[in-house]
Structures are given as structure tokens and as C-alpha cells.
Amino acid sequence: MKILVLSFYFRPDLSAGSFRASALVEALLEVLPAGSSIDVITTMPNRYSTFKQDVAEREEAGPLRIRRIALPSHRSDLRGQSRAFLHFARGASREAAKVRYDIVFATSSRLMTAALGARIARRARARLYLDIRDIFVDTIGDVFPKIAAVLRPPLSALEGWTVRRADRINLVSRGFEGYFLSRYPDRSYSWFTNGIDDEFLNADWTTKERPTRRAGRCSRFMPATSARARACMPFCRSSPLRSRDGSTSA
């Protein structure tokens, strides 16, 4: 079984998406069936311009392979973010085309990585598991208020296309339930939240000192991530396995 994990951010980058995707991969490796592999396609650290860390573009350790795509320098405005994502999308598509995956897992807060995952899964005829961390169509008015009215219709259509291609959808919050069930009631949903970092779980809250995060350290998401990894495995095992001629069997 070949699993693709698609995340714009991944360790050692610093962001909620990085911590979440990295913790999930660690948990999946603990329960991965023999002969299976996980490929992670992500970017070189770029979340904060002040955070620089040397890391290889390609890493391989046992069943895990990580491919980091270097992005051009860009600003944080709409044009800069769009340019950066298009560069990532082209690179990720090229990398993913080299392998016939059984499962595609994409974690996304602004819909684009989820849509990219849906496109890759469709091309590979793979099962698609989406991890939705925000409702971009709903929040775009706060992110880009001046052009929200123009962007919302095409983004809503893209959201519908993406969600309807997912075999399983995880929502990071029960607060998203009403939105998705009213629009896509026929999808299969789960709810695994972010949880709490080890630094806070293990802290002594009777003192005035507060825990601090060491740069580059990925958090482990309480029991939620391990539970999510275990929940993924029946979904993975039910994925049709392809033969070399492209046919499938249950």
C-alpha cells in the first residue's frame, strides 16, 4: 500500500499545518502494515521569513520518503501566495505522477492543497482523505475583504468539486459540522482536533514559569493523532489495490 501525504507545511517548518501533518505521519508509521510506504510532498521551510533551517530537499528513512519543494521568494499578499502555491502545485504534481498511490491524504486550511490532493487522487484513481482545518469560502471576507465578492463564487465551486471527490473528510472542529452537512450531507465525516502540545500537558502550572517551544520541534497531538492514524488504517485497507495492468481488486 502506497500513501501520499500532501501538506504545504511540514517539519521542521513552524505552523499548525506542519505540526499536525508531522504528528500524523509519526503516528501512521507506528501502525503501517508491512510492505507499505508513505511519501510526503511538502515545501522547504517558508512559513516565517525569520525562521531559517537547513534541511534536505529529499529525505528517506525506512518506509518514509519526504520531498520538499523549494519556493521562489514571495510576499504574503494574494499575488505572492498564489505564485508560491502554483509553484508547489506544479512540483507536487510532477512528483506524484511518478508513483501510483492507493491513498492520498491532504491537509488544508485554505482549500488549495485539498483541491490539489483531489486532482492527484483522481489522476491516480486513489482513495482521497481530506483534513479540513478551516472554511476558506466562509472566511475569505476576513482574509481578502476587498475582493471577497469576486472570489467567493469560483472558490465555492472549487470547494464543491473537491469535497465531492473525497472518500473521507476530517474536520478539525465540530464548529464546521453545520456548514459541511448542509452542503455535502452525503460525505463521510470524522472529527479529530488539534489537541494540546506536550509542553503544555507536562508543564507545572502552579509556578509562574510558562512552557516555551523549541524551534523546529513538532508537537504530538494528544491522543487525537494516534487515534486518527488508527482510524485511517481501516480506510487504507479498504482501498482497492491495483495490478500492473491498472485493474483493481478489493
Pairing-aware structural class of the strands and helices? alpha/beta
- Overall pLDDT metric: 84
Count of extended strands = 10
Largest sheet: 8 strands, mixed
Look up the CATH topology: Rossmann fold
Q: Supply the CATH superfamily name.
A: Glycogen Phosphorylase B
Name of the CATH architecture: 3-Layer(aba) Sandwich
Distance between the termini: 13 Å
User: Hey, roughly how much beta strand do the residues contain?
Assistant: 15-25%
Silhouette: globular
Radius of gyration from the CA trace?
18 Å
Helical coverage, percent range:
25-40%
List keywords for this structure.
250 residues; alpha/beta; Rossmann fold; two-stranded antiparallel ribbon; 8 helices; globular; disordered C terminus
Question: Mind sketching the topology for me?
Answer:
Elements: E1 2-6, H1 16-31, E2 37-43, E3 58-61, E4 64-69, H2 78-96, E5 103-108, H3 112-124, E6 127-132, H4 136-143, H5 148-163, E7 168-171, H6 177-183, E8 189-191, H7 198-201, H8 222-237, E9 241-242, E10 248-249
Parallel strand pairs: 1-2, 1-5, 2-4, 5-6, 6-7, 7-8
Antiparallel strand pairs: 3-4, 9-10
Helix pairs in contact: 1-8, 2-3, 3-5, 4-5
